[in-house]
Amino acid sequence: MVKPNMQPTKTPVAKQEPLVRARNFKEVCLGYTEEEAINEASRCLNCKNPLCRTGCPVSVRIPEFIEKVREGRFLEAYDIIKSTNNLPAISGRVCPQERQCESKCVRGKNGEPVAIGRLERFVADYAMKHADEMEKPAVPAPNGKKVAVIGAGPAGLSCAGDLAKLGYKVTVFEAFHTAGGVLSYGIPEFRLPKAIVQKEIEGLKDLGVEIMTNMVIGKVLSIDEIMDDGYEAVFVGSGAGLPRFMGIEGEALVGVYSANEYLTRINLMKAFLDGYDTPIMKSKAVAVVGGGNVAMDAARSAMRLGAEKVYIVYRRSINELPARKEEVNHAQEEGIEFRLLNNPTKILGDENGNVTGIQCIKMELGEPDQSGRRSPVPVEGSEYVIDVDTVIIAIGTSPNPLIRSTTPGLEANKRGCLVVNEETNQTTQQGVYAGGDAVTGAATVILAMGAGKKAAASIDEYLKNK
Amino acid sequence: MFKILNKKELNDAVVRMDIEAPYIAKKAKAGQFIIYRIDEYSERVPLTIADYDREAGTITIIFQTIGGSTQHLARLNAGDSILDVVGPLGVATEYGDVKRVAVVGGGVGCAIAYPQAKTLYNMGVEVDVIAGFRSKDIVILEEEMKAVSNGFYLCTDDGSAGFHGFVTDKLKELIDSGRGYDEVIAIGPVPMMKFVCKTTEPYGIKTIVSLNPIMVDGTGMCGGCRVTVDGKIRYACVEGPDFDGHKVDFDELMRRNATYKNQEKTHVCRLTGGVR
Ligand SMILES: Cc1cc2nc3c(=O)[nH]c(=O)nc-3n(C[C@H](O)[C@H](O)[C@H](O)COP(=O)(O)OP(=O)(O)OC[C@H]3O[C@@H](n4cnc5c(N)ncnc54)[C@H](O)[C@@H]3O)c2cc1C
Ligand code: SF4
Ligand code: FES
Fold first, then answer.
1. What's the predicted TM-score (pTM) here?
2. ipTM for the predicted complex
3. B2-89 architecture in CATH?
4. Which three-class secondary structure state does DSSP give residue A310?
């Protein structure tokens, strides 16, 4: 075995300077060069019992692909990743690696873990650039069966891809005018360039997947009608797109957005680019309420649109921020001010109904509860006002009721998530499968992708035996 | 792509188009709407479905050229195509057990009031249509509305045709004369709907309005279309666009609809400047 590189920290990766990137929408992280990737790959111990793999929701064969990177055989590394992960260029960029593979890596015990995410991204980008050197996957022989997929997010797309490879004729019905789901409308360009999402989608089309946009299922067609139209199975990957508001005073003022609306205007409608008609407020001071990826994306987008001051208002402490750690760091570097242990109580407006500020109450961590978690409790009399002209609410989303309310027999739980058999991802209706955020509530890209893959296998099993 | 099959200018600022949209035509019902996006650079804009032909697979839209987007749409002609049309969105109008209804339309709102009147009339309901316009030269759909109403009352602000005055004056007069409406349906500019509701409230006549907030997706995922009804946040795109007018916060809706007013102007300039 080659002697591993015992450098204790990750090989650094080039990024745009914080104060420069805070004012443009170009990708923040520039990715490894070949040399850097090989150097980082040589930090991997190629463990016999690779713990990293147990942390990966789709069990990417991590040490195997990293070994190929070390040997400079990048396209082979790509094939290894692709065998379990349909969207590596995307997951390499947006997975919370610090909570998944990298959290388990043995190198992390004494220094930093292997930069698995950066390596995955490197390999996927390399493969995209060298696509012509790879054999195009042959368009599979059709098996004569049709399957419908609802929603073109990571769950739907990966289900469609796997089924197409098995010879099914797959039609994806997407409500928006563009495929991609959150990858297109939610996650900003500076974190996930839309050209990459488009390439993945083009790859599916090459496999014969048909994508019908502007089709809101439950309105224009029901699942029953789709079934009547000759589709033998349906996969529901409609996500969890319904924004929650807080229910505090002032949420209907002019200048209050849901993060979904704010990000959709920017990412899908390109309000940030000249020549596009969709408007967005030109804000001076913005408060974003929430602590997840969505909140970070909204805050950093507001900064890029020219805001002078951007705040993250979050009711818990830094340790509970659910966002990817890297994005929190990036946001801090870019000058976003974190008002942690702060809970909004009211949004203030002027006589014309425009936002003028957000009133917050300070919180402190209370006594640990049964689970040992210390919940924040308000500090009495600590209310104060942050002067802002825009408030963006990013406190979470839930599944859209449109499909379940128009499909008799499709059961959902209290939170509106579709109920499925955990082994097969089948819903309570025969022939109808579901996965991704529609089942779990807002989660992650890789879990959605994995669910789509699992459902594809179950659908194949079901239709083979039908 | 969605092809424009026919185009007709109903007056200087109001255009009717028939658009090929077979899936939507098959499902559309009165009161529902579509969202269109003309090309890659355009906004997503909602428009009520004025009519549909299930056999021909077409829907009809009628719109007033107010903002940049509708001006852009109005410049297209039969044979041209629109990149995206999605629908039918929203809840179809639900007609209660009614015998006599007043349908009140204001300006281009008549384009939506008309199919409502038609549906009710064909159901055997006694329908009075009160249609208000600024002046005679912008009156639209007069013959059509007459044909589907028991009483047709044209009103103009300047008195150049029909009744000289606002629709609310005419409505009050009719109510006072004992028409005994079970319900009033009001569709038009927000201030008009607000005042129709003010007029009917003392009489306790149920009044349905069709709201037109700013929208993006039209499926409940952005919350941009939220309106306050009975003190609660409601999403007009999925729970509306029809609401009980006596419970709607119209002033808030007007303010929210003006969110991008200043930016809209620059868009218009850019359009007429012919940059694209
Ligand atoms: C701003 C933001 C940032 C995020 N950042 C990260 C991150 O860094 N890392 C990470 O792992 N995860 C992140 N997430 C979460 C992640 O994006 C989601 O968990 C994932 O996209 C879920 O995939 P999905 O396929 O289930 O649903 P979605 O991506 O939501 O796709 C659902 C699709 O279905 C369509 N649809 C819905 N209803 C219908 C209907 N009735 N008919 C037809 N089509 C319909 C929608 O338009 C959409 O295109 C982020 C989410 C957001 C919003
Ligand atoms: S745990 Fe770390 S060192 Fe071991 S195989 Fe995985 S990436 Fe390599
Ligand atoms: S238009 Fe987006 S939620 Fe209604």
1. 0.94
2. 0.92
3. Beta Barrel (2.40)
4. strand
